[in-house]
Every structure is written in structure tokens, then in C-alpha cells.
Amino acid sequence: MQQGDTISAIATPQGEGGIGVIRISGEHALKTADKVFRAKNGKPLVMAGSHRAVYGHIVDEAGKVIDEALALVMLAPHSYTVEDVVELQCHGGLMTLRKTLELTWKAGARPAERGEFTKRAFLNGRLDLSEAQAVMDIIQARTETSLTMAAGHLTGHFSKEIQSMRHDVLGMIAHIEAAIDFPEDEVDDILTYDIEKNVVEIRNKIANLLKTAHAGRILRDGLLTAIIGKPNVGKSSLLNSLLREERAIVTDVPGTTRDSIEEYADVGGIPLRIIDTAGIRATDDVVERIGVEKARSYVKEASLILALFDASRPLDSEDAEILKLVRGRDAILLLNKDDLAAVVTPAMLQERAGKDVTVITISTRTQDGLADLTNAITAKVYAGTQAGQEGTFVTDARQAEILRQADEHLEASIRTIEASMGLDFISIDLRSAWEKLGELTGETVGEDIINEIFSKFCIGK
Ligand code: GDP
Ligand code: ZN
Question: What are the binding positions for (6S)-5-formyl-5,6,7,8-tetrahydrofolate in this chain (predicted)?
């Protein structure tokens, strides 16, 4: 196997930490590391053997000690990139890591591009494209469910499904080509009958995968959620309950949540990206108005709206405005302060909102009803989703689009069969479907797309 030129980067977050890791990969990874790392035992890393940790020091050109470090040697092909890799575990300081990184450049490595280590793992065939993309999703996962989904992708659940479909399509193409070489009319009829049956099966699989796309995208990117309601209705308290932490400031003065804040909350495994918006009300206060304007625009952007109402105060014109704002939107109405004497009942709110709207009674003080809220949210997210095979989800828009296009080619093949247009034409449709599906695993995808996908990674990954 040919190794790429030698690249290096800081692989851990920039900041202070117990340890920080410099990753070096490529043809001269060991030689490069040997110029910046001096083993305590005096032996060069080239002689250390694979999968060994060697204790020593980072030293500059003059031999001055920069840091104490552990060098991890992983020889090709048994490494993340499938190339020779050395990881230098230094102390996690900004200065030591930058200095050490610079030394690796002086020693012959060049700065790694975004996602270049993972890209090499892909180009060297250790990960396919969907698996490589899953690496990023694992890093960014915000709930355990999201992590499980990403890990499933990384270990090939999604790829295996795609590969099995491609395998089936290729099998049909092979049969067709054999039949073209040895033409016999009755055989053709049996063959096209079988092909049609197979194609329908594959199309069903694609349809099921596409049904996971809605939930898959939310599990990966989060569900943009706006909490709205008039001042003092309990928006910040709800946010805190969902976050289970005291992060937002709760006060008794109406309209003090002026700046919207955004937080991630794990609600039944769904990562909610919550915007706590300012109380929506007519006001002369400029700061407050900016908050309200923002709130309106967030409501427009939000995929889910949690609209709060106060059970202990009569519904007023501000509540009416909130009800107007959520009309026709994906919203859950929450009747809060259930622990107090109620003047508003769920039935009253339901009547005002319409019978199709979900109304849930809660108390952010006693946490009553919050489990119902969690259930309502997960039900909404998973609505129409068939349980994916082994937790297989379609996670990004590109994957969904490719599946739809592959399905169009399969649909075309059925039309071709039904129009009795001949085996050649069926073969062309199937080949197009086969190539499309290959874009998911990266087997039939152009370099520009590969570059674009990896450019979204961070440096060092
Ligand atoms: P916001 O202005 O909508 O963000 O409302 P806050 O979350 O700041 O709450 C306003 C006031 O209502 C605070 O004094 C909270 O303690 C109180 N509050 C919030 N939720 C409840 C509840 O469920 N029951 C009771 N009794 N008080 C609540
Ligand atoms: Zn508030």
C-alpha cells in the first residue's frame, strides 16, 4: 500500500486539558516523530514496534525539552488512517501543543486539512463514505440515542443495507446480461417477472429507509424548539426543567428574559435545540421589543413550538396572540402551574386552540406532566418512522436525496419492463440505480463531493 505525504494536527480540543494529542500520519510519520520526540530508553520510534507506547520528551531542534510525552506508534495498515501513525500525548496546554505541532512541521510534516485523517481512512478503504460521515456524528452526538444511531452507522449498519441492495441489483444486471448473450423468449419472461419482484422488494426497503429520514435528521442535528408564552407564564422554569440544570435565570419580574438563549436538552433521547424567547407582548421598551421581534422570527424558524399558558390566570389578549402565532404550526400547548388553583382548564384551552392541537397540563414546580410532554415530543419525532433495521436511520439530506434518485431509476426499470422495451433497457435503468446507491458508500462518487463532505470536519479528525 502506498502511503500519503506526512500530515500532522492537534487532535484534541484547543484549550487546557490533562493531555493533548498531536496526530501524525503518512509515509514519514515515524521519522518525523523521531525528530521531535526523544525516548527515555534512547531508542528511535522506528524501532519501537507497532501498537506500543513509548515514554519520553518532546524536544526542539536544539535539543531543549518542551514537554514530557508518550508516543503511540501504530504501523500501517493497523491504524486510523491505515498509514503509519504516531500520536504524541503531551500535556494539554495550548503552548506546548502549538509548539510541538510546529516542530512536526519543521521535521517534514505538513498541516493536515479538515477531516484529512478520516478522509485517508476512507480513501484507503477502511471506512466507506457513510461510515466516515458517522465519525463526525459521533463527535457531535448530544444524546445517547443520537450516539447509538451514529455508532450504528460507523459500524456499518447503514452501509450493509445499501451494499445488500447494490448486490441484489448487480445480480439482476448479471442475469440480464447472461440472457442477452443466450436469448430465449420464454426465459426472458420468467426473468423479467423475477426482476420486477426483486425491484419491488428493493423499493420497499428504500421506502422504509426514507421513513427514518425525518427522525434521523432530528437525532443528528437536534429539533429546533421555541418556548413561547406571555411573561411570567413559566418559560424559563420549563427550560430549566428540560435542561435539569439552573442555567437560565428565573425571576419574578415580568419580561426579564430579554435575550434569547439557546440550549440543548435531552428529552427522551431527542436532542432539543431550545430557544427561550422573550415574553411576547406589546411594549414600548426597546430592549424588550428586540426580544419579542426575535421571538417572532424564532417561532417562524422553529420546527416545534412549546406554547405555555398559565392555569392560575384567566386567558387574556396576550394568550390569544400566542394562540394565533401557533395556528397551523407543529405546536404543543402546555397549561402550566397546575399546582395552583386553576381558573383555566385544559378543556377551555383545547376549545380555543382547536381539537387537533395537543394540550398537556404541567407544573414546572412539581414536574407534573413533564413525562407526558416527553412522550408527546418523541411521538411527534418518530411519527411515521418504521423502526429501522438494527437502528438504521438515514441521517442527512444528501443521503435521502440519493435514495430518492435511486428509487426513481428502479421505478423506471419497472416501467421499462411493463412497456416490454427489452432487456437492454432494463439493464440501463438498473445500472443507474446501482451507481446511485454507490454514492452513499462512496464507491461511485466524485472527488469534489468527497472533498466537500470532509471539509465539514474539524482539523485533527
Ligand atoms: P417566564 O417569564 O415565562 O420565563 O416565567 P418564569 O419561568 O420566569 O416563571 C415566572 C414565575 O412563575 C416564577 O416565580 C416561577 O417560580 C413561577 N412558576 C413557574 N412555573 C410554575 C409552576 O408550575 N407553578 C407555580 N406555582 N409557579 C411557577
Ligand atoms: Zn423567562
Answer: 23, 87, 126, 461
Tell me the ligand closest to 313's alpha carbon: 1
The predicted structure's pLDDT at residue 278: 54
Q: Is residue 447 part of a domain?
A: no
* Stretches in the chain below the pLDDT threshold 50: 258, 279-284, 286-287, 389
Confirm whether 330 is domain-assigned: yes
Listed in sequence order, the DSSP H helices in 311-442 are: 317-326, 346-353, 370-382, 397-418, 423-441
Are residue 365 and residue 406 in the same domain, yes or no?
Answer: no
pLDDT in the model for residue 391:
64
Contact indicator for 21, 10 with CB cutoff of 8 Å: yes
Domain span holding position 91:
7-111
Residue with CA nearest ligand 1 atom 19: 234
Cα separation, 53 vs 63, in Å, equals: 21
Q: Global pTM?
A: 0.79
Predicted pLDDT of residue 282: 40
Q: Are residues 201 and 248 in the same domain?
A: no
291 Cβ closer than 6 Å to some ligand 1 atom: no
Structural domains in the chain (count): 3
CATH number for the domain spanning 307: value is: 3.40.50.300
- The answer to whether the CB of 133 is under 6 A from ligand 1 is no
Indicate the annotated binding residues. Answer: 23, 87, 126, 232-237, 251-257, 276-279, 461
Q: Is residue 425 part of a domain?
A: yes
Complex-level ipTM beyond the 0.95 threshold: yes
Question: Are both 247 and 378 inside the same structural domain?
Answer: yes
260 Ramachandran zone, left/alpha/beta (phi>0; psi -120 to 50):
beta
In a domain, 448, yes or no: no
Cα(179)–Cα(188) distance, rounded to whole angstroms? 7
β pairing state of 331-336 and 304-310? parallel
